[in-house]
Design a protein that fits this description.
By secondary structure, this protein is an alpha/beta fold. 46% of the residues lie in helices and 10% in strands. Strands 3-2-1-4-5-6 form a six-stranded parallel β-sheet, sandwiched between helices.
């Protein structure tokens, strides 16, 4: 490795945790209690990039449903309870993700920038024994705007700089994402972008400079080469 790679910021759902199908199921079951249908097609094509509150707001706007902030908050809380039940039922981390994260953390500072809830990220990473490896975790509600705004990545990167004590260069740092919203967010923050095809095919990962099937198919050498290529 040339040492061109300086930092890695991971998205969480769809990159580290295979939780998108669980989020969808939790939303479907919760919305069904109010006779609202959410199809998998709609979820993946329209709503996946939002945090929970943003998803319900967008869904209500799309369907012409009047929902108060209190109703939205209650629905999101119910969905959170349902998700916890689903999470405890099985293994949620992608194959090879833990090994890659351990190797990455041994080489460079790493962080998470996600629209998931903080306690979900904490619980899953704690259970996997990797929580302490992340210098910063940015989650839902930490920034006024969620992805595709660059705010989550800007905050994660700023915190990583602070924690590492290094003057990290965003153009020599990589974001790993599973959606175009996330890639847009990372790109806006000036990071190099890698896409994983866990949620969308490669053709839909617009803005990714490198596309792989998952963290188990990624190497630090490939990320280092990506950062070195445009920094000659």
């Amino acid at each position: 490795m040339s040492g061109a790679l300086q930092a890695i910021v991971f998205d969480f759902d769809g990159v580290i945790a295979d939780s998108e199908p669980l989020h969808l199921r939790a939303f479907q079951q919760t919305l069904a209690e109010d006779q609202i249908e959410l199809t998998g097609r709609d979820y993946y094509s329209r709503y996946l990039g939002y945090d929970d509150v943003g998803l319900v707001q967008a869904l209500a706007a799309d369907r012409g449903m009047a929902m108060t902030d209190r109703e939205i908050t209650a629905l999101v809380a119910r969905k959170g309870v349902r998700l916890q039940e689903l999470l405890h039922d099985g293994h949620v981390i992608f194959p090879g993700a833990i090994e890659f994260i351990r190797a990455a953390a041994a080489a460079v500072p790493i962080a998470i920038a996600s629209g998931a809830l903080k306690h979900e990220i904490e619980e899953i990473t704690e259970a996997a024994g990797i929580r302490a490896l992340f210098g910063a975790i940015v989650s839902s509600g930490d920034t006024p705007q969620s992805k595709p705004s660059p705010a989550p990545y800007l905050l994660a990167f700023a915190r990583l700089r602070q924690v590492s004590g290094q003057d990290l260069d965003p153009h020599r740092s990589v974001a790993i994402e599973d959606s175009r919203w996330g890639l847009e967010s990372a790109h806006g923050a000036g990071l190099r972008c890698v896409g994983v095809t866990s949620s969308y095919p490669a053709a839909e990962l617009v803005g990714a400079e490198l596309v792989v099937d998952g963290l188990n198919a990624l190497t630090l050498a490939a990320l280092d080469e990506l950062c070195a290529n445009h920094h000659a």
